[in-house]
Amino acid sequence: MDFALLSRVLHFPVRHHSPRTTAVLQQWLERVWPEVVLVEGPCDATGMVDVLCDAQTRPPVAILGYRTDGTPASSLWPFAAYSPEYQALKWARAKGVRVEFIDIPVGVSLAVDRQAPGAEQEAEAGAPVPDDAVPLTDAFARSRGYRSFEEFWEAAFEAPDWSPEQFRPMLIAWAEVVNAGPRPGYHRQRDAFMARKVLEVVAGGVAPEKVAVVAGAAHTAAFLANDVEPALEARLPAGVPCAVTVIPFSFPRLAEQLGYGAGNRAPHFYQKAHEAHCDFRRATLEVLLDFASHLRMRGFSASLSDVLEAYRLAVTLSDLREKSAPGLDELREATVATLCRGDATHVDGFLWKSVIGHEVGQVASRIGQNSLQAEFWREVGERRLPRTDSPETFALRLNNPVEVGSSVFLHRLRVAGIPYASLSGTGSSRKQAAESDAGGYAALTRVRESWQAQWTPSTDVALVEKIVLGDSLEGVTTRVLQERLAQAKSTADAADVLLESVITGCPQTVATALQACDAHAATDADLPSLASAARALSGLMAYGTSRAHSEVGDDAVAALGEKTFGRALLRVREASACAPDAVAKVLEALRTLHEVALSQPRADKEGWLAEARGLMESHAVHPATSGLATGLLYLARELPEADVALEVGRRLSLAVEPADAAAYLEGFLQVNALVLVKSRDVVKALDDFLVSVEPERFRQTLPVLRRALGTLGATERRYLMENVMGVRQLKDKGRAVKAVLEEKDKATLKDMSADLSKALDDLDDLL
């Protein structure tokens, strides 16, 4: 191929998502009227051009390429209405001109190792970024007196009313400047690939002067300078299996603030400029009117005269800075100075979000959403759930079938790994719920859920990728839960899957999860695992499995729950004779068994109480488990206060090692410290123990004592000190001291009052 022919082809360098570039490109295409338009974009997405140009399609949208070999990977090529590539496609389709994408295929793009040296994303204008220096674009902008490259671009390229004859060579010259440094090898390989695609069109019989190439400025500069090495194309990796579709995109995703390297600062502002035919003064005025509306909605004063004053200030600032029209910097400064009365809080808090925008695009129905996408959007619409790319919070009251259905839908998305909604709190609490508490037993017991939902392009990406797991959300969730069940190593793991199956309404998994729980429990020697499973089954016994509509029935769950609880009791003594590093999990398991025994009528309560008494009396188990058992029996009113004091006194006696006594105390106070420290007999035993420990032993025991007593809150400490004073008979002395202090204070106040009265009299004389 004769690569010298590249210089004869009609090239138009573009900056992605630039209203001015788009406007000038449209004028240029009308003048040159090519026979073929070649656009930077994955060449195997040419079949999507009709969808992109369909009347039903409303940008922002994106081409989505994703792997189909089971490996989760995808890539996006987004378009706004003011993207020059998108308008080039629209122009060609409207004029009946042949149009194609010419960049490397999606499969090759997905196969590139993005972490490899030289494979990083190319800067928008091709600027090299040295490791220890400011990017060339920013340095150039600052040398011209601008605060950022974006401000320089707005002032020099966007705002002026350029003609194609002026704009095109200036943009090429700029690209040559910033392209002077070394470019990443991956992008030079793309140059070679695209150059070959262009020359193939020429070889097909189209004159070079009738071929229009619309590509990034860095690539265009390489083409015009004949700086293309054909051999580099061979270094591109082989493509991976993939598919291509078009999905909605959003303005926030186009914003550079969210990390999109080829984005801009305020997509909605540039959309207004595009609709105003690049009249940035009109766009500024329209945004200021929007700002005033937002302020008034929140109760602030923002009149039309304020808007006009802000507009005049923005124009004045742009004139002083020798700009053709106001840009985002002038818009912000004028808003702060006038509408916000010098306070930037409102701009940063909520106004600037409207400049970025939150609109979500729409794809023509002809693209044919897959079944998961169709189900998602149908459910979101029917259940009136958020569908914008900005977080919205809402609550569900789980006392009616409609809102329970919404909860099932959201939990299916959560389990399937489809990013859309996250649990933000429960009941009236506004605390952020931990991800581990989003499902499982916690979800089973809720009567209200608070969610925060936000559609992002990642939502549709996941819906496309998950189609390999099933053709419905229930099917995908079932598949995910089955895989988790196959990997379950303990009874607790299987019980977690069982709970999630109920919460997500997946009856197919309920039966297999029950069988797995039974099988694991028969050989499981881990008490925390068995206790966790017992709690899960107890919850299902109490709240039922109605969400899953399982044919297994609640009787089968109850039978397994009784059996699992009994198996857990058999492991109590052995598990409690554990090493110090394992005692925390054992203590939690014992508390769980206690809760189940007292709350679930079908649990073996007497069996648990017998095991708890055995732990309390045993010296073969870890002392903390004995202390916990003592406290649990006392709170359950299975142990009189006198017996508790006797047991605590025995465990904290001089005959017991201080470390064991402190560990016993740590377990004992974990139950309900407030109830325990209210008992004077218990406090006396504790006081006697602390007084009797020798200094050296006390220092050795201090870390455990601090851990045990460190959990006491202000109320518990107050009761503890009052009982200590009572035990040591210090209250009468305290009252006497207090009385002396009160008398002394009264005398002092009397003297101060006399001095104050005299001072006021002297002041009256002076006046």
Radius of gyration: 36 Å
Poorly predicted runs of 5 or more residues: 117-132, 426-435, 762-767
Provide the spatial order of strands within the biggest beta sheet.
1-6-2-5
Query: Distance between the terminal alpha carbons, to the nearest Å?
Result: 106 Å
Structural class computed from helices and strand pairing: alpha/beta
Largest sheet: 4 strands, parallel
Find the count of extended strands (DSSP E, 2+ residues): 10
Account of the 3D structure:
By secondary structure, the chain is α/β, with parallel strands linked by helices. The protein has a 4-stranded parallel beta sheet with strand order 1-6-2-5, sandwiched between helices. Helix 23 (about 525-545) runs parallel beside helix 26, helix 30 packs parallel to helix 33 (about 695-710) and helix 32 packs across helix 34 (about 715-725). The chain is elongated and about 100 Å long.
